[in-house]
Amino acid sequence: MRVLVVEDEQRLAAAVRRGLQAEGFAVDLAHNGPDGLHLAREGGYDAVVLDLMLPGLSGYRVCQQLRAEENWVPILILSAKDGEYDLADGLDLGADDYLTKPFSYVVLAARLRALLRRGAAPRPAVLQAGDLSLDPGTRQVRRAGTEISLTPREFALLEYLLRRAGQVVSKATLLEHVWDSFDTTELNAVEVYAGYLRRKIDVPFGRAALQTVRGAGYRLAADGG
Ligand code: CA
Q1: Of 23, 125, 151, 176, which one has the fewest beta carbons inside 10 Å?
Q2: Domain's final residue, options 93, 118, 143
Q3: How many CB atoms lie within 10 A of CB 87?
């Protein structure tokens, strides 16, 4: 598996390369945005690890440009914890995952393997439940024609539920798939985010698509509520 790492901090880039090579990846480096974009376009990579703050062209723009060209290579964004950008924006531009610096190479490799398993499949068509729609390609969510702004976590939660509209999905399943976590102490995070989501997709529209199924989990009404 060949991975492109776009990171302008040369020592970090070299360390990431060593770390990923130790995990069995073949790694190429780019140290600025334009080179990263060029290589990502031409290189046939299985995944791209993309820093956000890059000279020449930000990681956001690289990501946005690739997606605009319908290049669906899996992209994992790296960013400093207190960067001036919100990681959320990266996911909204079509990145697949992100990690905050500092991170462990073992975790990075595990995340990459997860992305590689998913592969660079074209983004599917718009998901819909009644007048509620989510476009995984453009990352736009609409209700009755009104665009709704969601955080990446809210978006991921809604996407997962929409793909299983009408079915009951347990909190543990959501935690595992949306949070990439098996830590059941975080189960209340699912409730918190379900609440956030309701306040955006249901409450302002006087609807009730996101239903709590007591003792079982959540169900997104297939008719949009
Ligand atoms: Ca940087």
Answers
A1: 125
A2: 118
A3: 20
| Surrounding residues of ion ligand 1, Cβ less than 5 A | 8, 51, 53
Q: Give the number of domains in the chain.
A: 2
What pTM does this model have?
0.56
CA of 78 to the centre of ligand 1 (A): 9
pLDDT tens-digit map of 38-74: 999 987 888 999 998 899 998 988 998 898 787 889 9
Q: Using the mean position of ligand 1's atoms as its centre, give its distance from the Cα of residue 185 in Å.
A: 34
Least trusted range by pLDDT, from 50-54, 95-99, 106-110, 150-154: 95-99
Find the domain containing 111 and state its range: 2-118
